[in-house]
Amino acid sequence: MSAIVDTFIAPPCHASIGILHEDEHLLIIDKPSGLLSLSGKNPQNLDSVHYRLVQDFPGCTLVHRLDFGTSGLMVVARNKAINAQLCHQFSQRAVAKAYSALLCGHLSEDEGLIDAPIAKDPALFPLMKICPQSGKSARSRYRVQERFTRQQEQDEPLALTRVRLVPETGRTHQLRIHCQQLGHPILGCDLYGGLVLPGTAHTPRLMLHASELDFIHPVSGEPMAARCASPF
User: Fold this and answer.
1) Fewer CB within 10 Å: N-end or C-end of the chain?
2) Residue 176, H or E segment
3) β-strand 158-167 against 96-104: which pairing, if any?
4) Inter-residue contact 32 to 15 (CB < 8 Å)
5) Each residue of 186-213: pLDDT tens digit?
6) Which phi-psi region, left, alpha or beta, contains residue 221 (left: φ > 0; alpha: ψ -120 to 50)?
7) Which of the following is catalytic: 23, 30, 47, 67?
8) Which GO terms describe its molecular function (predicted)?
């Protein structure tokens, strides 16, 4: 089997990380779109959320990641003990997450559940695939917030649906591939059909934003309900 080679080079990200909450144990941040969560093996992919934060918060570690193109909420541990406690909450599915997204087209249903197992697709790295035989269980819920049509100068009008997405599991690319499976890919998604329809090719970013994050503070025991409005 041939080795998988990752040739992706991230373009420079000039946007800054927003610090929404800071205490001696953890940070809650707003990640900009176009920034890696972790530095890549290629030295040209050094810039990342972790690389930037560790300059000001030595010893900090990521508890979870967001895709390169996804913006929004992340919780960052400031030491290994806090990281372990937060990772336990994630593994026990005690952390609630919700995302805002723009989907291509107008969804017919106001809400629904996408239940489709996801597996790696080695032949098409870094893509994932829907695979009932070898895939891991994956469930996502969606609720329509708005249906509208965006007028564009040179292209034909673009039908879009704003949705709130809630992943019940945490598979790689889950929301992106599930929306494609629904027949309405996330606008701007280069891997799963979000740049294919007429009028979508010049979309400046992936229209997916982590807008809600709920967990228990591992030291104080207080409920943490982070919110970050969508920038699109």
Assistant:
1) N
2) helix 174-182
3) antiparallel
4) yes
5) 999 999 999 999 999 989 999 999 999 9
6) left
7) 67
8) isomerase activity
